[in-house]
Amino acid sequence: MHIGLIGLGKMGGNMRTRLRNAGIEVTGFDQNPDVTDVATLDELVAALPSPRTIWVMVPAGKITDSVVSDLHDRLDAGDLVIDGGNSRFTEDFKHAELLSAKGIDYIDAGVSGGVWGLENGYGLMVGGSAAQVERVMPVFDALRPEGPREEGFVHVGEVGAGHYAKMVHNGIEYALMQAYAEGFELLEKREDIIRDVPGTFKAWQRGTVVRSWLLELLVRALDEDDDLSEIEGYVEDSGEGRWTIEEAVANAVPVPTISASIFARFVSRQEDSPAMKAVAALRNQFGGHSVKKSDD
Fold first, then answer.
1. Which of 94, 102, 119, 166 is catalytic?
2. Model confidence at 274, in pLDDT bands (50, 70, 90)?
3. Residue 202 among the catalytic residues
4. Taking a C-beta distance cutoff of 8 angstroms, is the pair 8, 32 a contact?
5. Collapsing DSSP states into helix, strand and coil, what is residue 106?
6. pTM score of the predicted model
């Protein structure tokens, strides 16, 4: 099988390697001349046998829109485009409609695994027609982790379902990370009785109900920097957490834990939180609680 892959960054480049290791022929295209297999998108399209399959692995939003539009202009009826980036599921409807006008098929694939996917495989959540999913199943099987297919791959539903499932997955991920982070801070605060914070997390990796891959990654980070003093407490968000909350509001589903985790990220970006200043001022007004004066 021979596919095209657009976007050879941290994940896309590793995906190309994993696919090739599994015997899938891959022609990759990237704006970076050091990693691309072909110089132009036209060369990529020309290199692929018909019907073509092209996996898009670029940042969500305008860049994905541009790539899908360019493919619409270059591909033919019967070709297939797979968006494996972190697009919002509503964008899938727009992209599928655009491509279907020329008879080009579309699959959305939520992909999880990060930089470890090359070694461990990628968790895949896929949306699209059953026929098209079956058509490229060798690609999905090459990318997913070894073991039973249902433990690393799911055909969630029609177009949009894959990215919707990935959105919720990432919302849950936000909450899990926040819980570990808050536990870390509490343990650090009680240095009078907690002598080994990294060792505590390490001991949780086996036999406990909070063991997980995220916990393993936290242990790895603590092995490198045992009090995380080399890291600034500033956390970005990639969008999926916000979209999860928006969907929860639209469907009247309570998600207080996920909501709290995304707002905690916003707080992390403020050197001196105005909200916390207001809370301190209010506590002082109604209860006479002391406030810490600014150094300014």
1. 166
2. low
3. no
4. yes
5. strand
6. 0.90
